[in-house]
Amino acid sequence: MMEPGLPSQDEPASWDELCDINLVPSELFFKFRKEIEGIRIGVNLEFYNAPINDVQTMLVLKPLSAERQWKFICKPIRQEIRIQSKKIPLTKFLNIQVGIGHNFKTNALAWQWKLNTCLGGDGISRIRNKTTLGLFPGLDFRFGWRADFVLPEVTGQVLP
């Protein structure tokens, strides 16, 4: 028999045991930018932590106008070039991006599209976000993070 106020062996002792939240830094970008005659030229150094450790460099060209609809991306290490649209909102939390790219290693030309959202991903309950800090004119520091979470199982029963 259990004493009142003490949890049983089957019940978790606290909310910490019911919910599991894992906050992971997932990406770190250094973006060097220079504006020349209506075009922003950027050199990005991108370090990824999750799901695998990876480093990418990119040269990015995009117009500065408010009507900007595209950007040009060159990834010299991967030998790729791409013209990509800006993110087009479909709903409050869902965006689509389309583009065409060429890989010089494989000599392949391909249409690309990407649906993205800040909620969910990879079959895991996940929230993703990015934060950018302007360190000084021409250099931005951006870090991305994700929070994986598991919600507690809720069960119940109605008795007659």
TrEMBL record:
Residues of the DUF7781 domain: 14-158
Kindly give the Pfam families that the UniProt entry links to this protein: DUF7781
Q: What is this protein called?
A: DUF7781 domain-containing protein
